[in-house]
From TrEMBL:
<keyword id="KW-0689">Ribosomal protein</keyword>
<dbReference type="InterPro" id="IPR004038">
    <property type="entry name" value="Ribosomal_eL8/eL30/eS12/Gad45"/>
</dbReference>
<keyword id="KW-0687">Ribonucleoprotein</keyword>
<protein>
    <submittedName>
        <fullName>Ribosomal protein L7Ae</fullName>
    </submittedName>
</protein>
<feature type="domain" description="Ribosomal protein eL8/eL30/eS12/Gadd45">
    <location>
        <begin position="5"/>
        <end position="94"/>
    </location>
</feature>
<dbReference type="InterPro" id="IPR029064">
    <property type="entry name" value="Ribosomal_eL30-like_sf"/>
</dbReference>
<dbReference type="Pfam" id="PF01248">
    <property type="entry name" value="Ribosomal_L7Ae"/>
</dbReference>
<dbReference type="GO" id="GO:0005840">
    <property type="term" value="C:ribosome"/>
</dbReference>
């Protein structure tokens, strides 16, 4: 994975526009604050299905099956499985970087 994506994700986190964890992401989606959702490959299938439905119903973009170890290493954490981005401009930039590095 290109470091540009994760470097910008860290900038986004430092700016306060990253929500980490199931409950925070779920609440932000329900309140219309979420712009982008990212899930790791080891998130349970039930949770993947639930967030996919939430995002589909609200037209929120999803990045699926991210590498858990890589995500956690860059965000200096151990058990991140789902994160959300609340800023539209930052979410668009992250999505562009993701598509560029994964095509």
């Amino acid at each position: 994975m290109n470091n540009k994506f994760y470097n910008f994700l860290n900038i986004t986190r430092k700016s306060g526009n990253v929500l980490i964890g199931y409950n925070k992401c779920e609440d932000a989606i329900k309140h219309g604050k979420m712009k982008l959702v990212m899930m790791t490959e080891d998130l349970s299938q039930n949770s993947k299905d639930k967030f996919t439905k939430y995002c589909y119903d609200r037209d929120i973009t999803i990045i699926r099956d991210m590498d858990k170890e890589e995500l956690n290493a860059y965000l200096c954490s151990k058990e991140i499985k789902i994160i959300g981005i609340t800023d539209e401009n930052m979410s668009n930039k992250l999505l562009d970087l993701w598509r560029t590095t994964n095509n």
